[in-house]
Amino acid sequence: SDIAPSLLPRPRRLLLLLNPFGGRGLALQWCQTHVLPMITEADVSFNLIQTERPNHARELVKGISLAEWDGIVAISGDGLLYEVLNGLMERPDWEQAIKMPVGILPSGSGNALAGAINCNAGLEQVLGLELLLNCAVLLCHAGVAPLDLVAVTTASGARCFSCLSVAWGFISDVDIESEKYRHMGAARFTLGTLVRLASMHTYRGRLSYLPPGLGELPAGGAGEARVGGPPDELLVPLGQPVPVSWVTVEDDFVLVLAIYQSHLGADLFAAPFARFDDGLVHLCFIKAGISRAALVRLFLAMEKGSHFEQECPHLVHVPVRAFRLEPLTRKGILTVDGERVEYGPIQGQVHRGLARLVTG
Ligand code: ADP
Ligand code: MG
């Protein structure tokens, strides 16, 4: 009774946001059965809120008092964490807010970030409930690491913060078209891939990028805004030509993928060399002319992350700081972190270590 209560260690307080419709809709059941008992045991106190609609998590996060929480955890697929990060960045105090540790307990159909966290911890690649349990244990360990975010701008001028990828062509087509197989969980991507392979499209586009170390002098800054995040000092507005220090290729592509984490899905080890805060966008693309058989081989090898070892001449990887993609094919699908965005010119630049991720 002589110890002031304020000197006693207090339990970590986590805000858990759960999307009851993520993946196969098992999030709440899995959470109640497996996760909540584990984190209670680890002396973590928490509030669990179920999201009621898209953008609910984003709005909640914009309104919370930062001092009340030690972390915000999305119990969902990657989509809900994307909302959390963007909600934090939309706050007037974004510079403080984005330092809030964010975590993920994978229970959606797209669980790329969880796959990356699991891999980073040196654990064997697993799926479903096993991946959720691994991530729950890591969440209890509470270690936090800096996480790169990529500011992505589309033709309308809208800017968002992305933590996973921008995709065009084969991958975004599969991601969006396979929404109708959502009830299958992660298997939706396998089926979607097979369906898509049967009618392989190619897309014409112009891809420009700024390699690291090359002319990283500020381009002038497309983003004058201090409100809503840091300025994109490497970018010029989409209506203007890219700076002269950039490299441009115009070609026909099967896919273009700008990825910043190691995983594209829990079992898609797409960029084995990527680190949470390497300050790099890994620009990967497959050029037209690849055979279906070679494309299948690449996707099969991606489970183990050995696809680059095949030295396929159509597959290219360039690490960059910033990129611009200008689709020339009139119709197509673009995704940011697996969610569809407006089709047209799109560009992004990395902001190294801007966010903080619970990695265990
Ligand atoms: P999945 O990996 O299965 O797609 P996500 O967590 O990525 O799961 O969620 C998919 C989408 O569902 C997200 O864009 C999110 O905004 C939206 N969402 C969140 N809560 C709800 C809800 N209660 N009802 C419908 N959609 C929701
Ligand atoms: Mg998703």
TrEMBL record:
<keyword id="KW-0067">ATP-binding</keyword>
<dbReference type="GO" id="GO:0005524">
    <property type="term" value="F:ATP binding"/>
</dbReference>
<dbReference type="InterPro" id="IPR017438">
    <property type="entry name" value="ATP-NAD_kinase_N"/>
</dbReference>
<keyword id="KW-0112">Calmodulin-binding</keyword>
<dbReference type="GO" id="GO:0046512">
    <property type="term" value="P:sphingosine biosynthetic process"/>
</dbReference>
<dbReference type="GO" id="GO:0006669">
    <property type="term" value="P:sphinganine-1-phosphate biosynthetic process"/>
</dbReference>
<dbReference type="GO" id="GO:0071363">
    <property type="term" value="P:cellular response to growth factor stimulus"/>
</dbReference>
<dbReference type="GO" id="GO:0005516">
    <property type="term" value="F:calmodulin binding"/>
</dbReference>
<protein>
    <recommendedName>
        <fullName>Sphingosine kinase 1</fullName>
        <ecNumber>2.7.1.91</ecNumber>
    </recommendedName>
</protein>
<dbReference type="GO" id="GO:0051239">
    <property type="term" value="P:regulation of multicellular organismal process"/>
</dbReference>
<dbReference type="InterPro" id="IPR045540">
    <property type="entry name" value="YegS/DAGK_C"/>
</dbReference>
<keyword id="KW-0808">Transferase</keyword>
<dbReference type="GO" id="GO:0010468">
    <property type="term" value="P:regulation of gene expression"/>
</dbReference>
<keyword id="KW-0472">Membrane</keyword>
<keyword id="KW-0597">Phosphoprotein</keyword>
<dbReference type="InterPro" id="IPR050187">
    <property type="entry name" value="Lipid_Phosphate_FormReg"/>
</dbReference>
<keyword id="KW-1003">Cell membrane</keyword>
<dbReference type="GO" id="GO:0043066">
    <property type="term" value="P:negative regulation of apoptotic process"/>
</dbReference>
<dbReference type="GO" id="GO:0080090">
    <property type="term" value="P:regulation of primary metabolic process"/>
</dbReference>
<dbReference type="GO" id="GO:0005886">
    <property type="term" value="C:plasma membrane"/>
</dbReference>
<keyword id="KW-0547">Nucleotide-binding</keyword>
<comment type="function">
    <text>Has serine acetyltransferase activity on PTGS2/COX2 in an acetyl-CoA dependent manner. The acetyltransferase activity increases in presence of the kinase substrate, sphingosine. During neuroinflammation, through PTGS2 acetylation, promotes neuronal secretion of specialized preresolving mediators (SPMs), especially 15-R-lipoxin A4, which results in an increase of phagocytic microglia.</text>
</comment>
<keyword id="KW-0539">Nucleus</keyword>
<comment type="subunit">
    <text>Interacts with ACY1. Binds to calmodulin. Interacts with SPHKAP. Interacts with CIB1, the interaction occurs in a calcium-dependent manner. Interacts with TRAF2. Interacts with EEF1A1; the interaction enhances SPHK1 kinase activity.</text>
</comment>
<dbReference type="GO" id="GO:0008481">
    <property type="term" value="F:sphingosine kinase activity"/>
</dbReference>
<dbReference type="GO" id="GO:0005634">
    <property type="term" value="C:nucleus"/>
</dbReference>
<keyword id="KW-0967">Endosome</keyword>
<keyword id="KW-0963">Cytoplasm</keyword>
<keyword id="KW-0418">Kinase</keyword>
<keyword id="KW-0443">Lipid metabolism</keyword>
<feature type="domain" description="DAGKc">
    <location>
        <begin position="9"/>
        <end position="156"/>
    </location>
</feature>
<dbReference type="GO" id="GO:0043065">
    <property type="term" value="P:positive regulation of apoptotic process"/>
</dbReference>
<dbReference type="GO" id="GO:0010008">
    <property type="term" value="C:endosome membrane"/>
</dbReference>
<dbReference type="InterPro" id="IPR001206">
    <property type="entry name" value="Diacylglycerol_kinase_cat_dom"/>
</dbReference>
<dbReference type="Pfam" id="PF00781">
    <property type="entry name" value="DAGK_cat"/>
</dbReference>
<keyword id="KW-0770">Synapse</keyword>
<dbReference type="GO" id="GO:0098793">
    <property type="term" value="C:presynapse"/>
</dbReference>
<dbReference type="InterPro" id="IPR016064">
    <property type="entry name" value="NAD/diacylglycerol_kinase_sf"/>
</dbReference>
<dbReference type="Pfam" id="PF19279">
    <property type="entry name" value="YegS_C"/>
</dbReference>
